[in-house]
Amino acid sequence: MGTVDAMRAEAMTGGARIGVDVGGTFTDVVLALRGGQLHISKVSTTPADPSLGVTAGIAAVLAESGIAPAAVTEVVHGTTVASNTILQKAGARTGLLTTQGFRDVLEIGRIRTPGMFDMSWKKPEPLVPRRWRLEAVERIAADGSVVRPLDEASVRAAAAWFQAEGVQAVAVCFINSYANPAHEQRAVALLREAAPDLLATASCEVLPEIKEYERTSTAVVNAYILPNMRGYLSLLSERLAQLGIAAPIQVMASNGGMVGVATARERPVFVVGSGPAGGVAGAARIGPGIGSPDLIVFDMGGTTAKASIIEAGQPSLVTEYEFRDGISSPSRFTKGAGYMLKVPAVDIAEVGSGGGSIARIDAGGLLVVGPESAGGDPGPACYGRGNRRPTVTDANMVLGLLNPEALAGGSLPVNPELSRAAIEQEVARPLGLSVEAAAHGIRQVANVNMARAIRAVTVERGRDPRDLALMAFGGGGPLHAVEVARMLGIRRVLVAPISGVFSAAGMLSAEAAHDFVQPLLAPLDAVAEGDVAPVLAALRRQGEAALAGEGYDRAEVLLRFAADLRFQGQSSQLTVPLPEDGFEAAALRDGFRQAYQDTFGYRPEEPVELVNLRLTAVGVAAGRLDFTSLSLAPSALAATAGTRLVSFSRGAPAVPTPVLPRAALASGSVAGPAIIESYDTTVVLPPGSTATAADSGCIAIDVGVTDA
Amino acid sequence: MPDHSPGALADPITFAVVKNAMDAIVDEVAYTVIRTARSEIVKDVMDYSAAICDAHGEMVAQAKTIAQHLGAIPEAMQAVQARWGGKLSPGDAVVMNDPYLGGMHLPDIFMFLPVFRDGAILAWIVVICHHTDVGGRVPGSNAADSTEIYQEGLRIPPLKLFSDGGVNETLESIIALNVRVPDRVLGDLRAQYAACQVGAREIQRLADRYGTRQLRAYLAELLDYAERMTRAEIATWPKGTYTFTDHIDSDGLSDAPVPLTVAITVHEDSLSVDWSGSSPQVRAAINSTLSFTKSNSFLSVRCALRGEVPNNAGVFRCIHVTAPEGSVLNPRSPAPVAARALTGYRVMDAMFGALAQIVPDLIPAAGEGGNTVVCLGGRHPDNTPFIMVDMISGCWGGRPDQDGIEAITNPSQNLSNTPVEVLERQHPVRVEEYALVPDSGGPGRFRGGLGLARSYRLLAEEAILQLRADRLVFPPYGLAGGEPGGRSGNWLGEAAERRTLPGKVTMTMRRGELLTHHQAGGGGHGEPWQRAPEAVAADVWNGKVTAEAAQARYGVVVDAATGAVDRMATQALRSQGRGEGR
């Protein structure tokens, strides 16, 4: 622990920290020096072994910055290894041990389908086939009492079967183990004893919450991705060591915080949502500092656009989510398409509108944009790599919003004529429109879709988007943000610093955050402080131990307790903060009723039930990137300047529009129409909007008139 | 203008934007219901739905909620307009639940809120909620064994519950007095109103943006667009009349089977759906009023349309549904209707059977045939009452190009299940099994989904059991040579000595007794003898089909331990032909 301590101390005082975001197309690397100076590199992702791209990107940023590998004190990593393992079905041969009578809980799931009227739908295959789902003889009752003792022979028989079948990892989930984990723990011990090579995960060791399918699914995913994550993290450590970097690796977790390698190796299910968490963490860090602690986070990439919200500087979280392939519909009515994970995660709504989203006319003559995407390869038509179907990027190209010669700081040559031809062929001619009108149409349909994702995390959650600022980043965010904001009545747009690699930068601002939960099902009135205190103490011990393992002193540990509450008889719950210094039923009840009112619009006076106590243990440390004193290496600022013709609204002629470098904002505000270009981002300022430089490297845009 | 551009009035871009906006608005209406409703049946089970209709009452958009509800809207809307046409103003909302005026069963209360623009109706917001109770002889107002609708609860003709934004206290107090849980019911009605208002506000915004006249035109175009797509597709279907008959085992009061017979006629670019020949109306409460029969007929056709047809009434325009008066699918008042859901499922099964002759590459063999409903009511030791209502879903039949799905909602609904741990927490029962039933999937080239088993041990002194199951007598049919799925079953007692119960049961259960239900399995699609031996072997390997059944029903010899196919033996067996192999 001493060396970890020392290293982290050095990270905070002198060295360089590196954030790495592995995307579908590019791996982004941001290196931050203590003074706030940032260096950036962007290299191709290497899907077969992502650690190759990561090390290439790190090597590039080290070379560019002249920083010695030994000076690197921490690497924060957003990884898609866990999520890709699930999507590609490339996980371990996984077994499942359940209570007798319940081997099929995993496959039965929650019965719903994501669509209607689609008789060709395919239900996701369970990650454990029925053959490897075995039953142990045992039973715990709902109150935790033992109905039938654990028959140890049945567990040993299962272990023998798993071994004979070549199973590598096993999840154990027994009915009512949330109320009494003894049988589950004993079964895991027996499995380890009988088959030492089996990687066993007990459901109560992940998060012991009520609902057997959700808990089983979570434990199974954990077991399924375990060997891959371990292999990857070991390989990455080795490759970093070869580069001369001995610094500890931190992994971004789904909850917007980060966890150490030890946790990622034991409970990788917490990092399945690692990818999008960095940008959210960055936005949460910046917002309060520039007067917008409440924010909508809007991240538009090549394939999808994602929205989430930050309230009082904290990302809005859900306690369970469904992980699935491709696009999550923003509609809350479409469950059943993925793998349920009952772990805290940033509440993200996603729509299939990105720069690469393809526009087409459907059989009934309707213009449709996405979710089909040309991705980064072959990419939009203008890339000239063989795709002849128009994308959102091609629409932006035709309208003059994007640089007509090259994107990505000049590294990616483009041909606007290919965009024009694609739109003409696939959209304009079939609809009898001009190419410009068709391009505006593609843009508008994409904007409406993206607005819908934002509505899903605001209006549908009882929040008015007009009260919030919109922080945009990702390759396309700043291109569309002002128009999307206007649709929703949002007045203030913030363009994040280094928008194109903001997720990687955001990781460097994240705190360590570990989640724990203990069930305590009881009517709130019947719960005394004496019932709660030992549970909170147990949670505290778990939290402090986890953070101590990552080198945090007591003084650096921040404990955020919370309670899950619901009205008696309901099955869904709300999480309400709980003061650390003690439990008071009346205050908790009021807090819950207020939260209920905020979310559901009314305030019943019915009896309240306590469901779980939760802890998020946060490791705070000085020296994390706070964006207040950023300076960018010159390469990150490279930009063109000049004038080009831009079409801002349909039917109106294109107007000569100044194209300015980001630095132009230093000398005052810029009124639209204007385009601000930098290395990796294009900011569109339509007529009526005004941009000014804001703190923390942001651009603040007053959108002018809104539609709502 | 080219052929497939939208109608001449419409700008194609605005059209696309308005369509997406309507989909978003109707989901927001639906979400508001969840946010503001009081009852579990709405909040957790999500038994409700939302739609937006144009000025004429034609549905232009629907939320992803209960499909089965929405085809009933046209009939209900006619009743509303017949009574209130020209007499409504802003802030009014009309409710109704009468199955004989376009409703479905009494717990489903419809609310219609007109959206006004320049003094005329521009659109309607419609929200339907299944209410926890609407009075009548049993809690929940949902008994299958009532014999006339007067036993089933409060019947509401189209009446204004809100007038000029204020509540109609006369109607509200009548409702409050006639239901068992007035707080819940009134709370949910207010949730419906709140959701309607959200929809109205958003429609107003859309009209502000695009102009009232234009928005009217776009809404009309949305319907025309769906109608065009539907007609274009039906035009490719082979002309002719296609018939199919499926059965409900019985109405529970007698043992007589209840046949449902459909004849679908494919015209040039439209369909007639004729239910002549179906059973006369029955004594028990499984009668389906015409609006509900239409609803299930429509949604069956919608499942047979490819691609991207919007879910709106443009589809309904191409389908003409008739059922003889006095039949189980168009009963005369006062026939009871509370448990009509079962009949709705079978309407869909019969429709699919006929549609499979028209578009054989799209339609699956029969699925389980509807939820089994298990109700246990009694008292805790402290004399407080408990009522457990549990629904057991099923599976889909084999499909023309892939196997059926096991453990899935019936396609006419989208309900969830109750976690065992939640059930045990709330009620004095212990669930001892929740599992797939091996060999219950109908054999076929593409196998039907397996049925589900669920068992309940009673931990209270005693309880009244009400059980509604079907498909014990008439199993889910197979298609194209596929065999029927496994029958459902009800048993009381321990595995070794259990006794068989009928499909529909009302009886007393005692402490420690074990009730077991097996839901039916889906029918198979295609000849089982044509199923790839590897697929059969995979099912054996995976414990979904036994080695015995693989040999007897598929003609594939599989080593039970390894899942390996014995190719020689299989070839020999299959070359003998099906009949001898079994």
Automatic annotation (TrEMBL), chain B:
It comes from the Bacteria. This is Hydantoinase B/oxoprolinase family protein. Residues 11-528 form the Hydantoinase B/oxoprolinase domain. It comes from Belnapia mucosa. PANTHER family: 5-OXOPROLINASE RELATED, HYPOTHETICAL 5-OXOPROLINASE (EUROFUNG)-RELATED.
